[in-house]
Amino acid sequence: MSTASAAAITPQSFKSGVKPVWCPGCGDYSVLSSITKALAALGLAPENAAIVSGIGCSSRIPAYTSCYGFHGVHGRALPAATGLKIARPDLTVIVAGGDGDGYSIGGNHFLHACRRNVDLTYVVMDNHVYGMTKGQPSPTTEPDWDSKLAPGGTGLREFHPLVIALASGANFIARAFSGDPNGTADLIAQAVRHPGFSFIEVLSPCVTYRPEQRGWKDAVRPASVAVTDDPARAARRLMTDDGFNLGVLYAGRRAPYRAAPQHEPQSPASLELDFAL
After folding, report:
1. What domains, with CATH codes, occur in the chain?
2. Which of 19, 62, 87, 262 is the most buried (most CB within 10 A)?
3. How many CA atoms lie within 13 A of 183 on its CB side?
4. What does 83-104 look like in DSSP terms, one character per residue?
5. Is the predicted pLDDT of residue 239 greater than 70, yes or no?
6. With pLDDT > 70 as the criterion, what percentage of the chain qualifies?
């Protein structure tokens, strides 16, 4: 891309004509803005980026962008994105999802995406609730959160995605807050630039089913410690983290997954010879 064309790239370049249908006040509006700002800051053309998602409120994001997009089935965004990145390593691949899609039905894929360390970025909008399906507790919901669908709370220990990501091999781990779209955009750009599997948890309030989450704006703060590339040190930090420290919390040095070299194509007849009795 020429310097002139790169200069013409703005966040608006990545917005489609489809109007978002989230609830008024949903944090996902800001995350969408952050993604388009990050892509523009990276100097990418829309045709050089792809956004993949599963099912849920946050998974609508591909429709609201003008780059390549794939709206997959529930919990399967990461394997679809992995296949895309391996087949088209020239593309910048971002996966957008939520805590239900990513950590419940998609939990197993989350573990193995971290382990494989393919060079893509996973942005999870976490609001500790299933918003699209009317407010059920999600894997990250507090065990004592009382609701009509879970009176008295579930009593289940919540899932800790950043700890799981580190233990499973993610190469970049960060937390952002949707109320800070510029800070979130900067973290997304850093994640894309960092080689390997990058994971960003974005605290994105659900004002419809979790109106108390409006208070997150007073709870979040920049992490008081510098980023580390030491997994043991990062583990100690994350295990004692209260969930509101923002910034890059781990930036590892693992080499990203590399696809095997392509071989010359073979005809069906030559392949059949390998199975001849």
Report:
1. 12-273 (3.40.50.970)
2. 62
3. 18
4. HHHHH-TTSEEEEEEEHHHHHT
5. yes
6. 96
